[in-house]
Amino acid sequence: xxxxxxxxxxxxxxxxxxxxxxxxxxxxxxxxxxxxxxxxxxxxxxxxxxxxxxxxxxxxxxxxxxxxxxxxxxxxxxxxxxxxxxxxxxxxxxxxxxxxxxxxxxxxxxxxxxxxxxxxxxxxxxxxxxxxxxx
Length: 135
Fold this sequence. Notes:
Elements: H1 3-47, H2 55-100, H3 106-110
């Protein structure tokens, strides 16, 4: 196996995970905007004088939206952290290739990889958005 190929695969993996994290952030932001639109419509309907419901119902719906917003915000922060980790891995590979001009031995090659089997983030890490079952 060629060391250059391993570096290319590792870089491609980091690039893909960074792209997926940003895509997931945008998707979550869009879902939240849809939720805000639905809640705003519900509040307008609840505050309509002909509905016969107390104004407190509208305030409760807005409070639920705020709570959901806090969870979305925390998840968006976590996705940003995931993107940063991938970007750091890509930068480490680039820096390694520049410093070694692709002329390196196995000990030097090991320093290029940010994540190894013993340093991968835990599968049960808190505040992750998507977790595969069985991990």
